[in-house]
Amino acid sequence: MQKTLSSSLLTLSLNNMEMVVLETEPEVLIEKISNKGNRDTSAAPGLKWCVGLKWFGCVAVSFGLLCILQVILNISLRPPLNYEARTKNLTDERDELKGKLNDFVSGHEAEIKTLTGERDELKRSLDDLKSQQNALIRERDELKRTLNDFDQLLQEGWVYFRSSFYYISSTEKTWQESRDDCLSRGADLMIIDSQEEQDFSRRLSKKMWFGLTDRTQDGTWRWVDGSPLNTSYWFPGEPNNLGEMEDCAEIHSSAEGNNWNDLLCDSQNHWICEKKVAP
Question: What does the pLDDT average to over 81-92?
Fold first, then answer.
């Protein structure tokens, strides 16, 4: 069976297998070969032609796929055509920016130095302020403690006068016992080193031991802190060292300006303690 077509399919059945080939030639011969009965040997040339056509198509398709793969590999593996140019441009841009930065730093170096100096000065000022603040805090805390001490002393019967607290005893003891009592209170027998303090002691109108003695060296009167006696307020004719045994001084109750008297240290007497405080 023969049939002429301008464009058709070629169908080949061989050993129960069919192969369809699209032929685009103007004229094509389509043959049907049957595997039943006796094989027609005159169809062999057509069969060979179809097999050759199949092989050619496979080769063509494979070649096309290889070409496509090659193109893809070339595109993916090939470096950009302008790689070197882009690298050079980036390098030039970097160098230009570095140059501008250097120019900026050089042009503003004096300003930067001035600002740095001002910053350091501000830091030093801040440190000084912190030190002053800490000093004020310590001073405040010290004043609080002092005020608390003052309140305690006032509650215990001490009297405040010109940066000192004074304690006047209500009992009598010897000079040494009196001093020991003052020391136990964190004080000592009174030292009179000004006219104002002398007037204060006279107004108390009481005989009292105070911190003056010549027990260490007879005739040389010293205060309990070891300092020498420079200004004195003795009664007229005193100290007389009666019986060469009067080595301790008392404040005598008198309205007169001078009211000191020397007395036996073992005599019983009231006493006055002095605790100096910061002004």
Answer: 80
Q: Which residue has the higher pLDDT, 276 or 27?
A: 276
pLDDT in tens, 181-222: 999 999 999 999 999 999 999 888 889 999 999 998 888 999
pLDDT at 220: 92
Strand 164-168 and strand 222-223: the pairing is: unpaired
Q: Give, as one character, the DSSP assignment of residue 239.
A: -
**Pure H helices in 8-108:** 44-77, 83-107
**pTM (two decimals):** 0.53
Please state the three-class secondary structure of 105-120 as a single string. Answer: HHHCHHHHHHHHHHHH
- Tell which residue, 220, 213, 228, has the closest CA to residue 174: 213
The domains of the chain are located at 8-75, 103-155, 159-276
The amino acid at residue 201 is S
Alpha-carbon distance of 166 to 104, in angstroms, equals 75
The DSSP bridge partners found for residue 271 are: 209
* CA proximity to 233, closest of 253, 259, 212, 199: 259
For residue 29, what pLDDT is reported? 43
Beta bridge partners, 248, equal 213, 263
> How far apart, in whole angstroms, are the C-alpha atoms of residue 65 and residue 45?
31
Q: 3-state SS of 74-89?
A: HHHHCCCCCHHHHHHH
CB 270 within 8 A of CB 172: yes
User: In which band, very low, low, confident or very high, does the pLDDT at 24 lie, cut at 50, 70 and 90?
Assistant: very low
Residue range 159-276 in CATH 3.10.100.10: yes
Q: Is the pLDDT of residue 119 over 90?
A: yes
